[in-house]
Design brief:
The complex is a heterodimer of chains A (289) and B (384). By secondary structure, chain A is an all-alpha fold. Chain A contains twelve helices and two strands. Chain A has a two-stranded antiparallel ribbon. In chain A, helix 1 (3-34) packs across helix 10 (224-234). Chain A starts with a helix and ends in an 11-residue tail after the last helix. Chain B is of the alpha/beta class and 384 residues long. In chain B, the strands form two sheets. In chain B, strands 6, 7, 8, 9, 10, 11, 12, 13 and 14 form a nine-stranded mixed beta sheet that branches. Chain B has a five-stranded parallel beta sheet with strand order 2-1-3-4-5, sandwiched between helices. Chains A and B meet through helix 1, strand 2 and helix 11 of A and helix 2, helix 7, helix 8 and helix 9 of B.
Chain lengths: 289, 384
């Protein structure tokens, strides 16, 4: 086990963290602003993968799919927002969880009807198909692309929230929605924009993950567990929380598989339980909660 | 061509001759997953089963009731009870998951209803938990993997790292391979059972395999996990040769794995490119009916239909006689010669070692070795 082995595993951990970040950031942003637990996020992730596969097949280009699929998922999300989500805003968390969990099964069956039961794959674009030399090790180029994309989105969201006017409006609405509305911020429209952004991120995560894993009808449900672990560990509703949670879970899962393979499956759950007991609000929760 | 047409005509005539007096319908319960993780397998097996009856022109003789196990053992058991007690079926065909098979085993045995297992490979079902009412026409986990251990050691591959999902099938497949591979002089230098259905990143395990100093990786994964594993193996530059149980590169989903699957060598009891008249006719008929290449799962369904018809042709008509007739079934099917071992009620069949190769834009299977008539040791079962 030389240095290159540990560099390789470090890159694996960062790559997995970025995938988890892309998945959990949409969920946590929507919760932070709307106080809405959108379990259908997993279904939107699944739709991103399937629509991405069809878009790539139709256009012959992965890059076209990378743009088209998140936009299509955003449209589906917008329809959901006006038909269901908006009405459920004041209905309490139990109703929200039940309805959005039910949506997972609705979308699962729609995907089965549209794409069938056989698991599908998406090829990485030819320019990223091989391996690249980095830090003295050969590493899949597509995985480096995931790391880069994750960092870009992280930075983009950070700058938007911290440095732009809309970012300031979002922060104000998260901390005190009533006061923000009194000051003239159209909180309703802001909510809609943020919800759409969350859907775009879910769809993007679906397309980006498809060349690494496979698209199956069960992916929307199975991804919810790691995503919720990330959100709970990091703290609901904050960007910093999602970043911290993804890195912690990504590194624990990867190095758990390397050092304690027999416990790889339970390490993240042990941490989850410890966080819930010792710091139930998470490590870096949004202010105002 | 002439003799073939003649024999087909003869077979058809014989079929009509037998079908006409046997007006009594046989009631069949198809107990398969039609939703959940393995829905694709349930549909593939159903298509194969229906094709067998249609090609024989005998669909009218069978009254088929479908039930969805949802791949959940308690649901599977409830549906088995429903088929036996409410629908009063003569025979049950199906079961994809070894877990569901374990759940229905005692009920089937006690109710004395014949069950033709059309997938689930759990070694115990035809080992220490065998039953005179359970006949398997698919495969057993050990049967598919044992020949590969001997073959791989014979190829000069000396050190292997193993990987499989952490559940009964994964463990049985790796243990069977390990047994024959080490007996033939090979060495297992390391291995891991990955959390079943929870592992989306195989990168850490692939790096472990490389660091172990192994010459090759031996693995079993199926369905979505197989696609993820093979694609990630490919993305890391295929640093070690990859061998495994043939479900890894099943024709059902090998297209989704793409070029990453090229060069992977695995063993299985059926390969759609087998060059025999029986298989060519089957592949053609399956393609004409469903417009795709049949997988091993389709063949399980097809052979379940074939062996049920063979049992009925030998004079069986109710639960007891069908159960007694099934172990005597023997014929040449798409996968080659097959028979049921009366000692265990498990199938005896050829195991094919095949390489996934490029074929134009797509992928196909090239058979590189055949181990004939592989029979499982009784392992605590004696039905004879």
């Amino acid at each position: 086990m030389d240095a290159s082995f540990w560099i390789l595993q470090f890159l694996n951990a960062v790559q997995f963290s970025m995938l988890l970040f892309l998945l959990s950031i949409g969920l946590t942003v929507i919760f932070g602003l709307l106080h809405f637990i959108n379990l259908a996020h997993g279904a939107l992730y699944m739709l991103g993968a399937y629509i991405g596969i069809s878009a790539a097949a139709a256009t012959g280009s992965f890059w076209a799919a990378l743009i088209l699929a998140p936009l299509a998922v955003m449209l589906i999300g917008a329809v959901l927002y006006f038909t269901l989500i908006d009405r459920l805003r004041g209905a309490g968390p139990m109703n929200q969880v039940l309805v959005t969990f039910g949506l997972i099964f609705v979308f699962l069956d729609l995907v089965r009807m549209g794409w069938g039961d056989v698991a599908l794959g998406l090829s990485a674009p030819p320019s990223l198909a091989g391996t690249s030399e980095i830090l003295g090790v050969k590493y899949p180029a597509y995985r480096l692309f995931i790391i880069a994309l994750g960092l870009v989105i992280m930075a983009g969201l950070w700058i938007t929230l911290a440095r732009t006017q809309i970012g300031a409006m979002i922060r104000a609405s998260v901390e005190n929605g009533a006061m923000a509305a009194t000051l003239g911020i159209n909180v309703g429209r802001l909510f809609f924009i943020v919800f759409c952004l969350g859907c775009v991120l879910a769809g993007l995560a679906g397309v980006v993950a498809a060349p690494v894993t496979s698209a199956t009808t069960g992916m929307g449900i199975s991804i919810l567990i790691p995503t919720l672990i990330v959100v709970v560990i990091g703290g609901l509703g904050s960007l910093q929380g999602a970043i911290a949670g993804s890195l912690i879970v990504g590194f624990i899962e990867t190095f758990g598989a390397v050092l304690l393979p027999g416990f790889a499956a339970v390490l993240a759950y042990i941490l989850l339980a410890a966080i819930l007991v010792l710091r139930p609000q998470g490590l870096l929760p949004a202010r105002g909660h | 061509m002439k003799p073939k047409i003649f024999s087909l005509a003869l077979a058809a005539a014989a079929g009509i001759g037998l079908a006409a007096p046997a007006a009594a319908e046989t009631k069949v319960g198809l107990l398969l997953p039609y939703s959940g993780t393995y829905a694709a397998l349930g549909n593939e097996i159903t298509d194969g089963f229906n094709l067998a009856l249609e090609l024989a022109g005998r669909s009218g003789e069978f009254d088929i009731v479908r039930e969805d196990t949802e791949v959940k053992p308690p649901v599977g058991l409830a549906k088995a009870r429903k088929l036996v007690l409410e629908d009063e079926v003569d025979v049950i065909v199906g079961i994809v998951s070894s877990g569901v098979l374990g759940a229905v085993r005692d009920f089937i045995d006690g109710a004395q209803v014949p069950l033709i297992v059309a997938n689930a490979g759990n070694d115990n079902a035809t080992g220490d938990a065998c039953s005179a009412y359970i006949t398997r026409v698919s495969f057993s986990n050990g049967q598919v993997n044992r020949p590969m251990g001997t073959w791989l050691a014979g190829q000069g591959v000396k050190k292997v790292y193993t990987l499989a999902p952490d559940y009964a099938a994964g463990r049985q497949m790796i243990e069977a391979f390990t047994e024959t591979y080490t007996a033939a002089g090979g060495e297992i230098v390391g291995g891991e059972y990955t959390p079943f259905g929870q592992t989306s990143d195989f990168g850490p395990y692939l790096a472990n395999a490389k660091a172990s100093g192994a010459d090759a990786i031996y693995t079993f994964y199926a369905g979505g996990e197989a696609i993820s594993f093979v694609k990630q193996y490919g993305s890391f530059g295929k640093e070690l040769p990859l061998y495994g149980s043939g479900f890894l590169t099943s024709p059902l989903y090998v297209a989704a794995e793409g070029d990453a699957a090229v060069g992977v060598i695995t063993s299985l009891h059926y390969v759609p490119t087998l060059d025999t008249p029986e298989n060519k006719a089957f592949v053609e008929a399956f393609g004409a009916a469903y417009d795709r290449v049949p997988s091993e799962y389709a063949v399980h369904g097809y052979d379940a239909g074939m062996s049920l018809m063979a049992a009925i042709d030998s004079g069986a008509s109710d639960r007891e006689t069908i159960a007694a007739a099934l172990p005597k079934v023997k014929y040449v099917g798409p996968r080659g010669p097959l028979e049921i071992d009366p000692a265990t009620n498990n199938i005896v069949q050829n195991i094919y070692i095949y390489e996934t190769v490029k074929d134009g834009d797509g992928l196909t299977q090239k058979v590189v070795g055949t181990v004939e008539a592989v029979r499982d040791a009784p392992k605590g079962c004696n039905l004879r």
